[in-house]
Amino acid sequence: MNAISPEAAVGRVVLLTTSHRVAPGLLSWPAWQVLHEADRVLCADGAHPQLPYLREAGIPVEETAPTAEEIVDACSGGRTVVVVATGEGEPALTDGLARLAGSGRVRMPELELLPASYDLPGARLLDLVQVMDRIRVECPWSSRQTHAGLAKYGIEEAYELVEAIEEGDRGELREELGDVLLQVVFHARIAEEHAEEPFSVDDVAGGIVAKLIHRHPHVFGDETAETPEDVKEHWLRTKAVEKRRESVTDGVPLGQPALALAAKLASRVRTGGVSAALPVGDGIGYELLRLAVRAEEEGVDPEAALRAAARTYRDTIRSAEGLG
C-alpha cells in the first residue's frame, strides 16, 4: 500500500446498504447523488439485484471485493469510493478498516454508512412469506399438510395466545402472536395450490384491508363515531348487510366453547333488539346458560372469568399438595 502524506486529502468511503424487501432500483435521492458523484463504485456480488438498475442509470460498477488497504489507497487524493454492500453486509471490509484505523499507522478516509433503502413497517412479513414458500416445497412434513390437518393447531395456538394475554407475559405474547400468524400464512400458502379456487396471502390481506376500510367510515369516510358503542353499532349493521343474514344468530359458530357460545348468542339478541326469553329447563346446562347471559349483560366474558377462577383453583390444589 502506498504511503499517504499527511497533507493529502483523505477521501471518503461510503458503504451503501439496501433492503432486499424493497424493489431494486428504488433508492433514496442521497444514494443516487453519491453514486453519480463517486469516483469508483464497487460491489463484490456480481448477482446483486441493484446492479442492473445502477448500470441502466449510467453508473459503472466494478465487480470486485477489495481489501481494506486497497480501499484506502483508492480514496487517496480526496476520491470517493462507494461500496454497494451485499446481503450479508461487508464484515471483512469493515473489520479490516477498523483494524487499520486502530493501528494509527494509516491516515484513514472518512467512513460513511448510507442506507439507500429502508424497510417499511411490516416488511418482515415478506420474509415470513418467503420462508413459508420454501418450507412448503422442501419440508417433508409441511409439504403434506392440508387445511383440515392444520385446523387443530390453529385452535391450540389461539388458546395459547389467550393464556399469554391473561398471564401478562410480554415475551410469551410476542411468541404466541407469531405462532398464530404462522397459521394464517401456512393456510394461505396451501390455498395457493387449489386447482379451482386458489388464493394467496395477498388476497387474504387485501380482503381484510377492504373490510376494515368499509367498516370504519368514521376513519376513512364522512361518518362520525363519538363512542365505542357507536363504532360497534355501525360495525354490526354493516356486517349484517354484507352477510345478508336473516337471523341475528347467523354466523355464530356453534363449535366454539359453550360459555362463549351462550354469551355470543346473548350479545346478538341484545344488540339486535330481539325479544327472546331464555328457555326454561332444569339441570346444570340451563343454569350455566343463565350465568353466561348474566355475565354478558354485565359486560363480563364468562370464559375469561371461569378461566381466572380455574387458575385460582389450580393454585389452591398445588398449595394443598405442598407444591406452593
From TrEMBL:
Annotated NTP pyrophosphohydrolase MazG-like domain residues: 145-220
GO molecular function list: nucleoside triphosphate diphosphatase activity
Gene3D superfamilies cross-referenced by the UniProt entry: MazG-like
Name of the featured protein: Nucleoside triphosphate pyrophosphohydrolase
Listed Pfam families: MazG
Record EC number: 3.6.1.9
UniProt cross-references to InterPro entries, sorted A to Z: 4pyrrol_Methylase_sf, MazG-like_dom, NTP-PPase_MazG-like_N, NTP_PyrPHydrolase_MazG
CDD domains per UniProt: NTP-PPase_MazG_Nterm (cd11528)
Highest taxon of source: Bacteria
Record carries keyword Ribosomal protein: no
Keywords recorded for this protein, A-Z: Hydrolase
